[in-house]
Amino acid sequence: MRRLLAVIIVLGIVVGGAAAFYFLRPIDGPERDLSLTADVARGNYVMRLGGCVACHTDLKNNGATLAGGAPLKTPFGDFVPPNITSDPDAGIGKWSLEEFSRAMSVGEGPNGKHYYPAFPYDNYTLMSDQDIVDLYAAMMATAPIAEKAPDHNVGFPFNIRLAMLGWKNLFLTPQRFAPNADKSALWNRGAYLANGPAHCGACHTPRNMLGASDVTQLFKGVRGGTGGAFVPPIDAASLKAEGWDEATLIDALTGGFTPEFDTLGGTMGEVVNESLTHWTDEDMKALATYLLDAE
């Protein structure tokens, strides 16, 4: 009996150790070239592509730009977008380019702090090296706001940051966008935008019980999304079934109204006003081209 108990204990230690090794492995991805020459103006445009202003600004309460956004209410708790201005204490002004790149690429901040997937680094990891370098330069050029955003309101066990490392080992694959050689340059640009900086799937794709996007249901819509709102499907089949074409889709995404004159309100209204209306015509055309033909 003692021998059997000893065997069970040893097996438990081995299995537990193997599980810990798997779930607590460091997360790394393709090395980025951070020696590229930065362009602040272009970085400001990337900021609009990425929805940084809409998310990290408390628009309803006239908060300072990028000084922290309104809480994102989820089944796991309320996540507050932090201050990402150049302020060295309340914001990210002390961050190096390498630290910024790692946060965007693998969801890990300075001192090994693992971020929650409410910050869509699983999309941002697809961004190009040039976009990361330019965005960092633009962030460092922002006006510093010396007011720290409130902490997240997340209960146990979700408040254990180390658990996010296990989450990443299960669901995150750090990688860069890979163009589809069978598609046009315009389609590929749209695919890059939708799946990378614009992170459309972060809201429009269902998530599993652990909060990871179900990529088999990409853009299929969510009933009871952030804050309990209905987030409509934007996959190609759904858009075409509802009669959308390139012109009407672009009009809605830049004007905020559907062909039936319904308003794209709530969070999507903020995305329209603070992000999509700042995009170039070519990028809007690319996004529409991709969404109407996404596989």
What secondary-structure arrangement, pairings included, does this model have?
Layout (H helix, E strand, L loop, with lengths): L1 H22 L16 H10 L2 H5 L15 E3 L2 E3 L17 H10 L14 H4 L4 H12 L22 H9 L13 H11 L5 H4 L31 H6 L4 H10 L10 H9 L6 H11 L4
Helix pairs in contact: 2-6, 4-6, 8-13, 11-13
Could you list some keywords that capture this structure?
13 helices; two-stranded antiparallel ribbon; 295 residues; single chain
What does this structure look like?
The protein is an all-alpha fold and 295 residues long. Helix content is 42%, strand content 2%. The chain has 13 helices and 2 strands; from the N terminus they run H-H-H-E-E-H-H-H-H-H-H-H-H-H-H. It has a two-stranded antiparallel sheet. Helix 4 (97-106) packs across helix 6 (129-140). The termini are far apart. The model is unreliable at 1-22 (pLDDT under 50).
